Amino acid sequence: MRRLAVWRDAWAETLAHARSNPLRTGLAALATGVAVATIALVLTGLQGVERYARETSAKTFGSDSFVITRLVTGTLNRRELADKLARNPDIINSDARFLDRWAGGRVIYAPTAQRAADVVAGGRKFENAAINGTASTLYDIRTVELAQGRFIDRTEDQRGAQVVVLGWDVAQTLFPDTSPIGQTVRIALRGFTVIGVQARQGTAGGVSLDRYVWMPLGAYERAFGAPDSLDIFARAAGATSTIEAEDHARITMRARRHLQPGAPADFDLLTPEAARSFVFTLSQRVGAAGPPISLMALLAAILVVTNTALVSVTARTREIGIRRAVGASRGRIVGEVLAEAAFIGLLGGLAGLLVAGLVLRLAQGPAGIPLPLEWSTIAWSLGAAVTSGLAAGWYPARLAARIDIIDALHAE
User: Fold this and answer.
1) How far apart are CA 169 and CA 178, in angstroms?
2) Are 132 and 226 a contacting pair, CB within 8 Å?
3) Which stretches does DSSP call E strand in 16-160?
4) β-bridge pairing 124-134 and 212-216
5) Which of 67-71, 178-182, 197-201, 293-297 has the highest mean pLDDT?
6) Of 308, 342, 352, 301, nearest to 14 (Cα)?
7) Helix (H) or strand (E) segment spanning residue 104
8) 389 CB contacts (<8 Å, ≥6 apart)?
9) How crowded is residue 365: how many other Cβ atoms within 10 Å of its Cβ?
10) Using an 8 Å Cβ cutoff, are 345 and 305 in contact?
11) How far apart are alpha carbons 315 and 43 in whole angstroms?
């Protein structure tokens, strides 16, 4: 109870000093607030980038899926790109049929081709939509959330029926006042019946996912001709793990190409992890710069709060002497100075988090990335603020405790 009373008196003294010196307290809290805002922005930004990488790969590829493609260009230099272009042949329908024939119930495949084309309905036109010819199995491989209707079924897939699933933006542009289901759109001068509308997806890598149009691959080939090369989306089936499915697909494709053991593959296999690698590399680089920036901001805040505490101790020298003369212990004086420094840190931390929250709310719209201020970030930031306040107040507190009572009573 006695210790509790000591801390209660220390906080009462702290609040009294803060009210009597608002400018000095405010400037010290401002320095801590800048440091805390920096920490919160860096941590939340890194969390947002990593979350964006996961969500982007899930939307584009599926969380547990992979893609067999002619080549992946993301990490290749010019020479490597030229070598792969010369070595890797196009992936064609017969490759997809071979993979499906030897899937053995372990892997689900969906050959897919894409190109840009206009979509027309009545007097309205949606320009440069991403037209995708694919298989009905794509719905089991990656997330294709539907707002209305349904996806392509197996019968429509097999006969190449002229049906389409529209992306959200395409549907809203062509049919703003009515349901698109059952309506007819024209693509490459051919009529297609709308059977579904994809739910709003947002963007991935700065590219809108709401501009997509899905149709059976057979209908796509009738409209645009056979594609130069297919991308084959795939996913593990049944109890098969993703790694086992990738290995099975890789072995099957090598058998299809008659590749000898040890010979380099003449195709690429793109996994969600590989697709996220660029964003993760970016987040690591930002993360490497984040701690030094945060540390420098904290050190600056500690120096400002230390200076503020020293000024406070100097201004209160006579008061401290009188209190020591009437029985206040050194520990009580130390506690009061530390409490004042911790209060400044806490006050600055709360202000910094408020500013960081406002900045993140304004930034998440243009950035296209959700940037919520997580509770873990709030706790870590406030902890850093209070800790830095205590660190800043330690030397002034020890200095105040060593003040000579006689000299202090004579101080003006």
Assistant:
1) 14
2) no
3) 65-69, 107-121, 124-134, 146-149
4) parallel
5) 178-182
6) 342
7) none
8) 32, 305, 341, 342, 343, 344, 345, 346, 348
9) 9
10) yes
11) 38
Start-to-end Cα distance in the chain: 36
| Token representation of residue 72 | 């992946």
Rg of the chain on CA atoms, in Å: 32
Would you tell me how many other CB atoms lie within 10 Å of the CB of residue 321?
20
* Residue-by-residue DSSP string for 131-169: EEEE-TTHHHHS---EEEE----HHHHHHT-SEEEE-HH
Residue located via tokens 């897919």? 112
Report the C-alpha gap between 143 and 138 in whole angstroms.
Answer: 9
- For the entire predicted model, the pTM comes to 0.60
CA triplet 195, 197, 200: central angle to 5 degrees? Answer: 170
Amino acid identity for residue 245 in this structure:
A
Domain limits of the chain?
Answer: 2-57+277-410, 65-270
Question: Both tokens of residue 9?
Answer: 């008196």
Contacts of 255 (CB under 8 A, 6+ apart): 102
Look up residue 109 and give its two tokens.
């495949």
Residue 170 burial (C-beta neighbours within 10 Å; 0-12, 13-18, 19+):
buried
pLDDT tens digits along 38-93: 778 777 777 776 666 566 555 555 557 889 999 877 666 778 778 888 889 999 99
Residue type, 96: A
Listed residue (35, 39, 20) closest to 305, CA to CA: 35
Neighbours of 48 (CB within 10 A): 19
Q: Which residues contact 22 (CB under 8 A, 6 or more apart)?
A: none
Return d(Cα 232, Cα 249) in angstroms, integer: 10
Stretch 186-208: mean pLDDT: 86
Tokens representing residue 41 in the block: 């922005």
| Residue 171 Ramachandran class (φ > 0 left, ψ -120 to 50 alpha, else beta) | alpha
Q: Which two three-digit tokens encode residue 371?
A: 């940037």
Task: Give the CA angle between residues 87, 89, 94 to the nearest 5°.
Answer: 150
Per the document, the length of the chain is: 412
Q: Which two tokens stand for residue 27?
A: 């400037």
* String of DSSP letters for 226-266: S-SS-EEEEEE-TT--HHHHHHHHHHHHHHHTTPPTTSPPS
